[in-house]
Design goal:
Rna Polymerase Sigma Factor, Chain: A, Arc Repressor Mutant, subunit A, 190 residues, 2 domains, mainly alpha, globular
Length: 190
């Protein structure tokens, strides 16, 4: 069945149709949320909340965007909300505990990278250090594979802003990861 048929069936009370939509879009939502938040319990919560919001909003869905774009927009917005909550919790925690040095930065010490053999975890940790406005563009464009136009539509940004943020995000990610590349890093330009 097409997405539009599944939505119509869901609106008529067919719970299996909605389950089909969840099965179709769950991998995309999971990739987006984990890309934004990292692997954590909150990511599971945001993923579930994405589909709850999607279900509640189905009656008003106008199909001006694809279902995938619509669901991804919900996932991005909920992820950004969670990042704001994290920031507030971190600030609150900082003032409760006078030791600011205990705040976790998401990456291991560069000297400990020999013990840190999972490159995906390293990159994922670096992603978590990016400002959410840069992270969202990078996740959607490079990890989720959306086009520049789709990314602009999901984030409701001009295409130029998406391209600018993507360039800055890639540079910031490179700056974060460079200390971890060590002697195996070859210059990009010869």
């Amino acid at each position: 069945m097409k997405d539009s048929e599944l939505i119509s069936a869901t609106l008529m009370g067919d719970h299996r149709a909605f389950q089909s939509l969840v099965e179709i879009y769950e991998p995309r939502v999971a990739a987006t949320v984990v890309g934004m938040l990292g692997r954590c319990p909150e990511a599971d919560d945001v993923g579930q909340e994405t589909f709850i919001r999607f279900f509640k909003g189905l009656a008003g869905f106008k199909a001006t965007a694809s279902v995938g774009t619509y669901i991804t927009r919900i996932a991005i917005n909920l992820s950004l909300n969670e990042l704001k909550r994290r920031k507030r919790r971190t600030i609150f925690s900082f003032f409760q505990h006078e030791e600011a040095g205990n705040l976790i930065d998401g990456l291991p010490d560069p000297a400990a990278t020999s013990d840190y053999d999972d490159t995906r975890e390293l990159v994922h940790g670096a992603l978590q250090r990016l400002d959410p406005k840069f992270r969202s563009v990078l996740v959607l464009r490079l990890l989720d594979g959306y086009s520049t136009n789709e990314t602009a539509q999901i984030l409701q940004l001009p295409i130029g802003t998406v391209l600018s943020r993507l360039t800055r995000a890639q540079q910031k990610l490179k700056d974060i990861l460079t200390p971890y590349m060590g002697e195996y890093h070859e210059p990009l330009h010869s």
